[in-house]
């Protein structure tokens, strides 16, 4: 138990340790001592920022051996952090040291040029902008950005679009149960946006603006959820069952991998790691038992082996009849 807890806490510690070190160094640049010796404070802050990020990259890398480009990137990031985050007098002292500024600039340019070349080669090889971006930026950050971009496009566009059901496939809806609940959350979100803006604006206009942006983003996210649940039904064709929950879940199950339909599933069973529960905010009414485990990757690339797949349909009887005809 202690070893498993340490394994779970290690990634968090690797993330937080450099942030704490950089934050402490940034606060030190605002001290009276730093104001009296700004050049020394600037060099120390630059060293701490680059060193903290580099040590974190080494700790996170496989066998503690990050590539040369990764190390160059951490040093470049440290240069940017030290320039942007330092107190005014310390920043001015840093920018007055021309040799240091030239070295920082060349470091950033070298990393950006190297990364651009790597990304371009990846794009030519795969044709995927996402794969190319993952060569330069953290993969989870790229996946999150792509997901958020897709959700915002879905919220703002595709009004009146028909559900996505390719030729030769049957679509089975699941949105009529879940969308009314999300609509209620959306109404509450809109009320909260107005109330919070009115209250917080009396204290800080900047804070009110930040909360307004977050509130609008939350409302758009809920709209995207509702539209996604309607536009992306569960699909059944001759070879595959395509289990979807808007843009949140996407799993293709080969028909010959399905062993049988289970009559029911408990909440404890649905929460198991080897069960994909696609019935969001509701209890599943269709449960598939698989002949052998299949691999599923979530939005952020984390994988697990599935032995059962559960979801909820508005009208399960036609789906069950169509699926049994193929089993």
TrEMBL record:
<feature type="transmembrane region" description="Helical">
    <location>
        <begin position="70"/>
        <end position="87"/>
    </location>
</feature>
<feature type="transmembrane region" description="Helical">
    <location>
        <begin position="181"/>
        <end position="200"/>
    </location>
</feature>
<keyword id="KW-0812">Transmembrane</keyword>
<keyword id="KW-1133">Transmembrane helix</keyword>
<feature type="transmembrane region" description="Helical">
    <location>
        <begin position="99"/>
        <end position="119"/>
    </location>
</feature>
<protein>
    <submittedName>
        <fullName>Uncharacterized protein</fullName>
    </submittedName>
</protein>
<feature type="transmembrane region" description="Helical">
    <location>
        <begin position="206"/>
        <end position="226"/>
    </location>
</feature>
<keyword id="KW-0472">Membrane</keyword>
<feature type="transmembrane region" description="Helical">
    <location>
        <begin position="40"/>
        <end position="58"/>
    </location>
</feature>
